[in-house]
Design a protein that fits this description.
With 226 residues, this protein is mostly helical. It has one domain: Farnesyl Diphosphate Synthase (Orthogonal Bundle), CATH 1.10.600.10. The chain has twelve helices and no strands.
């Protein structure tokens, strides 16, 4: 959708779908479902606020980033997993495990999306490469790179800290340096780790076709960031 209609329309469509889902949910009269939905909405708002405000003084930027990812992205996938288990008639124990798996998968998905923003072409990611970089958004590869103390990284660190990446030439230079930096493999390792957490939860579920589908999602999220 971003490729065809642009990011603004894609975001609005997502908001509309979330609103329609809330309307449908309200008609189900399930106490657990109706109480979970506002909790997820609160996490979404909190995640957006944290991203806007940035890390507090003395807070680890990577820890702050992960908190934002868990609230803004993983909370939604967790709720989807929770509802899937709940409405399928699964036991409470299985529903909780599915929820944990989907939350970890949501983190892995967002990490892989951040990696694709740097590593991929527009045909793969659906948006212009380096969009977050141009807008000064500190995604996972950038945060890893900013921790570097290697002398060869001086130029990259200057570019990432310059606030001038709207300039096409500087943006292209920074993107090329970041793509070749070990920070990319560090970010991929993080994505694999979270996908592994999700997979471990999934493997403890009953051996049914739905479990295989969830396993395939774990493989997908790793492959897309590779």
């Amino acid at each position: 959708m971003p490729t065809r209609w642009g990011n603004s329309v894609a975001v609005l469509t997502g908001d509309f779908l979330f609103a329609r889902a809330s309307q449908i949910l309200a008609g189900l009269h399930e106490d657990n479902a109706t109480s979970s939905q506002p909790k997820t909405l609160a996490r979404l708002v909190n995640g957006q606020w944290k991203e806007t405000a940035g890390p507090r003084r003395g807070e680890d930027p990577l820890a702050h980033y992960l908190g934002v990812v868990m609230d803004k992205t993983a909370s939604l996938t967790a709720m989807a997993g929770q509802f899937g288990g709940m409405f399928s008639g699964a036991s409470a124990e299985i529903a909780v495990r599915i929820t944990r798996a989907c939350e970890a998968w949501g983190v892995a998905f967002q990490l892989s999306d951040d990696i694709l923003d740097v590593a991929s072409g527009s045909a793969q990611s659906g948006k212009t490469p380096g969009t977050d970089l141009r807008e000064g958004i500190l995604t996972l590869p950038v945060l890893h790179a900013l921790r570097s103390a290697r002398p060869p990284d001086t130029r990259l660190l200057q570019l990432l800290s310059s606030g001038e990446l709207a300039d096409p030439a500087l943006h292209a230079e920074a993107l090329a340096l970041l793509r070749a930096h070990p920070a990319m493999e560090m970010a991929r390792a993080d994505a694999r780790r979270w996908a592994g957490i999700a997979r471990n939860e999934i493997l403890a579920l009953p051996d049914v076709p739905a479990r295989s589908a969830l396993e395939a999602l774990c493989e997908f999220v790793v492959e897309r960031s590779g």
